[in-house]
Design goal:
Strand content: 15-25%
Low-confidence stretches: 328-348
CATH architecture of the largest domain: 2-Layer Sandwich
CATH topology of the largest domain: Nucleotidyltransferase, domain 5
Strand order of the largest sheet: 3-2-1-4-5
Largest sheet: 5 strands, mixed
Distance between the termini: 24 Å
Structural class: alpha/beta
Number of domains: 2
Shape: globular
C-alpha cells in the first residue's frame, strides 16, 4: 500500500458517490455519477460503468492518478451474496488497489453509528436494514428486505389514485397533487405514460415521494394510510435485524437515514418507531454521525488502520460535502449526468 489517498465509494440504485481523502482526514474531492450501481438491477457491466464513472470524475477533480490510491473501499447495493462479492472484487481490483467490498447497508451502519449496539434503516430509492451486536458482528437484510424505499411508496400512491379514479376507493388529494407534479391532464395519462411501450417518462417515480409525504402530513386519509403502512413495514424489518444479532431486549441506537427520512414530516418516522418499540422497547433514536454515502470512505480509513478521532475526525467533518451531493432525488438532476455540485467557494 504505497499510495497516498483513501478512496471510498457508495453505490446505490440512483447514484454513486466517490470520496477521496488524505490520511490526515481532509477530503480533497467528491463527485457522483447518476445511474444504478446495483448489478442485480442493471447487470455487472453497467453497474461497474457507473461505479468507475464516479471514481474517474472524483480523481479528475482532484488531479490525482489511480496509482496514488492507497486503499479503496466500496459500499454497494447488490453486494449481497458471496458470488456477487467475488464478482465485484474480481472486477474492481483490476483498477483499484485491494478493494474492500461490503453491502451498502453495512456502509450505512458504519457511517451512522461507528460503534456499539445499533440498527440502521436506510431508505432512499430502495431500502435496506443492518444491525450490529455487542461483539461487533453484523447482519444486513439484503434480499430479506421486504418494505422498500421511495419507488415502492410511489407505486402504492399511484395504485391508490388508479383505484380512486375507477371509483373502487374514495377520492384522494393524491390525485390532483400527482397530476400537477407530473404535468399531465388526468389519471389515464399517468397510467398511459408509465405503461406504454415507448414511454418517454422516467421510470424513476421515487421522486414523487416528497409530494406523497406532504399530502399525508396534510391529513389526506389515503396518503396517511400508505405512509403509516410503509413506516410500519420498515419498523418490522428493524425488529427483525435487532433479533438477528440478539439485541432486541437491550438498549441500542436506531438511526434512520436516506431521502425518505429527510422529509420534515414525522408520520413515517413515528410509524416506524412505534412498530420497532412494540418489540424492542429500549431502542433509542439517534442522529447519524455521518451521511450514509460516507460509509465507504470510513471503511477505507478502517482498512488503512487510521483511527477517525481527534484532528482526523475534525478535518473529515469540516470538509465533508453538503447533503445536496448525497440527495437521492435532486429534482433538477434526475435523468441527467450531474456535474459536481460542490460549491466553488468550498475548496477541499
Amino acid at each position: 500500500m504505497t499510495g497516498r489517498h483513501l478512496l471510498g465509494v457508495d453505490g446505490g440504485n440512483t447514484k454513486t458517490v466517490a470520496l477521496l481523502a488524505m490520511p490526515s482526514g481532509e477530503l480533497i474531492a467528491a463527485d457522483r455519477e447518476l445511474g444504478c450501481a446495483d448489478l442485480h438491477s442493471v447487470g455487472p457491466q453497467r453497474a461497474l460503468e457507473v461505479i468507475n464513472g464516479a471514481i474517474d470524475k472524483t480523481l479528475t477533480m482532484a488531479a490525482v492518478e489511480p496509482s496514488s490510491i492507497r486503499v479503496s473501499s466500496f459500499s454497494l447495493a447488490g453486494a449481497d451474496w458471496p458470488e456477487n462479492l467475488q464478482l465485484l472484487r474480481r472486477s474492481l481490483q483490476r483498477r483499484w488497489p485491494r478493494p474492500l467490498i461490503v453491502n451498502d447497508a453495512l456502509g450505512a451502519l458504519r457511517s451512522a453509528v461507528p460503534s456499539g449496539l445499533a440498527v440502521v434503516v436506510a431508505a432512499g430509492t430502495g431500502a435496506t436494514t443492518a444491525a450490529r451486536a455487542a461483539d461487533g458482528s453484523t447482519w444486513h437484510a439484503g434480499f430479506w428486505q421486504q418494505t422498500q424505499g421511495s419507488a415502492e411508496l410511489a407505486e402504492q400512491a399511484l395504485r391508490a389514485i388508479y383505484r380512486a379514479d375507477l371509483g373502487i376507493d374514495p377520492p384522494t388529494k393524491l390525485t390532483s397533487r400527482l397530476l400537477s407534479e407530473l404535468g399531465v391532464r388526468d389519471v389515464e395519462a399517468i397510467l398511459h405514460d408509465l405503461s406504454r411501450r415507448t414511454s418517454a417518462v422516467s421510470p424513476e417515480i421515487g421522486s414523487l415521494a416528497p409530494t406523497i409525504l406532504d399530502v399525508a402530513e396534510e391529513g389526506d386519509a389515503t396518503a396517511r394510510q400508505i405512509v403509516v403502512d410503509h413506516g410500519t413495514g420498515l419498523g418490522h424489518m428493524a425488529v427483525a435485524a435487532a433479533r438477528r444479532v440478539g439485541i432486541e431486549d437491550r438498549p441500542f441506537s436506531i438511526v434512520l437515514v436516506g431521502g425518505l427520512f429527510r422529509h420534515p414530516g414525522a408520520l413515517m418516522r413515528e410509524a416506524l418507531l412505534s412498530a420497532l418499540r412494540s418489540s424492542a422497547p429500549l431502542a433509542i433514536e439517534s442522529p447519524p454521525a455521518y451521511s450514509p454515502s460516507a460509509g465507504g470512505l470510513l471503511l477505507a480509513f478502517d482498512a488503512a488502520g487510521i483511527r477517525i478521532a481527534g484532528d482526523v475526525e475534525r478535518r473529515l467533518l469540516r470538509t465533508m460535502p453538503s447533503d445536496e451531493l448525497f440527495d437521492t432525488h435532486p429534482r433538477a438532476l434526475v435523468g441527467t449526468r450531474a456535474a459536481s455540485v460542490i460549491d466553488e467557494s468550498d475548496k477541499f
